[in-house]
TrEMBL record:
It comes from the Bacteria. PROSITE patterns: PROKAR_LIPOPROTEIN. This is DUF3829 domain-containing protein. InterPro entries: DUF3829 (IPR024291). It comes from Rhizobium rhizogenes.
Amino acid sequence: MTTIRRTWGYGMGHFYRALAATFSVLALVGLAGCNGESDEQTSKKAAVESSSASSQTELAKSNAYITAANESSGMFARALASYQDVIAPKLSSNRPLETYTVVPVQQLTKVRTRLDAAGAMEGSIPELDPAARDYAAAIAAFEPVNNGLSNYAQSKGFLTDGGAKARAEDQAYVEALTKVVDAEKVFFEKIEARDERLMREAYEKAPEGSAARYRAGIVLRSKAAMKKVVTVFSEPDDIATRKAFADDLNDMADLVEKWDRAVRAEKPDGCPALQNSFNSVIADGRKAIQSAEKGRFSPASGTPSSVIQSEFSILQQNFSMMILRLNQPFFC
């Protein structure tokens, strides 16, 4: 998309990438439901899983981390982008401020509290623990700076001093928030990498031709597609990525058909709600491809950025709903 003026991290591109960060809680447990297997088979699997206390401990801690990640969901990246786009130009103009905002204190505290609570849980996850600690530490260092300016913003202190305090603390605020954004990005990447590894293991362990295997395959292809979706929206001239995105959606559609047949072989009614979620993501993705091909995402098109953001958000919301339903073992 053409309104992106900054590289990864700061600007509209980060808005899209932040929204694309949605993680699947209980991903492996979710594979047990609506997969065409009998109750007896599912029970046997559940018994095997429950016999491993360490696995359950790790699962609980992992889910706590993922909840913290979804709680922030790119909030800090959006806050920094907004600050640089809206507030920074006003501060540099040396004119009296009329508006001023910082990160909401309650949301900031909530994310850090969730991270601290998850880190204190029993067990260890080497893939996630260090990144989570760094993320929580970055937030803790940012809180005093943000909290002081929050009082200033809420009480409209900038109307009495013309923005002097905001200008004096601008550098400290941006530096501290940037560290939070960087730590958040690393934390998200670690979760995503682990999530993909576990899902790929589930795919490889599932019997060939089973609904469970197709289901895991759908998740893997959808996640591969979502890694490209930002480029589809923000870089309309990148035809190669758009084609790769289309290939992922086509693979996903093929797997959905195979999954549906496998499910209905055991359960004639199938799982229409989950099937609809799968197809909504595919349909939204194909619509985005069509829009990009017609030039709607090009700067010359004149398409309002709010319209493109809305289209992206709908795709992301449907992807999130798909993940949510997958996380409910007995959804159907």
